[in-house]
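Input record (Table S2, row 217):
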Amino acid sequence: MRSILVINPKGGCGKTTIATNLAGYYASHGKSVLLADFDQQASSLDWLAVRPESFPEIQGVAAFEEKFRAGKNIDVLIMDAPAGLHGRPISDLLRRAETIIMPVLPSPLDMRAASRFIENLKKINKVIKAEVKLTAVANRVREHTIAGNELNEYLSRVKLPDGKKLPFMTVLRASQNYIRAAEKGLSIFEFAPYATQVDRDQWKPLLRWLNSTRSRP
Ligand SMILES: Nc1ncnc2c1ncn2[C@@H]1O[C@H](COP(=O)(O)OP(=O)(O)O)[C@@H](O)[C@H]1O
Ligand SMILES: [Mg+2]
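Output record (magnesium ion complex):
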């Protein structure tokens, strides 16, 4: 089973957006997906609740209130983390993860919060031993903006505990397609291709990485 954790203690950076779109991507490629919502706000579960029956089923679990085990039939476990998570609960979430995706917004405050979070991650044994693979996603980026460029530069410079660079290959634009997808219980991969081509293209490097051994310990 593939297990992917989408995490960043900062609220509103795109955790649920990335978790639900990944869930839709894998489901539409015939995978059996379990979407574990660790956030009391249950936005991922709300998304699942409005998902049309005509689209591939995705299982959901209210991980913020119930213990769960992913069944043997599950191909991909996607974990949507809550905001404001610190210390021990982070280690608990990390225990299940083989890959971590950290969305970051192009704002000085978000970048500072991301740095702090990365520094904390680097103290966790599993990260030090590279038993979990990390990547960052620059999210809601407007092209040719100073904030967007600064975020790119910042994320390109981040180092892992082993001194190697943090893999950073994904910049997602701010797009109404994500809002429409959130409303409808769909992923951008489940709309007509012409409507979401630019966004799909932006996901390609991330998906290639996720589907390769480079994203697994
Ligand atoms: N790339 C994007 N383009 C447009 N809207 C986005 C994008 N990413 C996230 N959003 C919107 O921003 C808000 C916060 O995103 P969300 O995924 O819920 O963040 P988090 O789960 O980290 O709190 C949501 O309304 C979501 O639809
Ligand atoms: Mg969320």
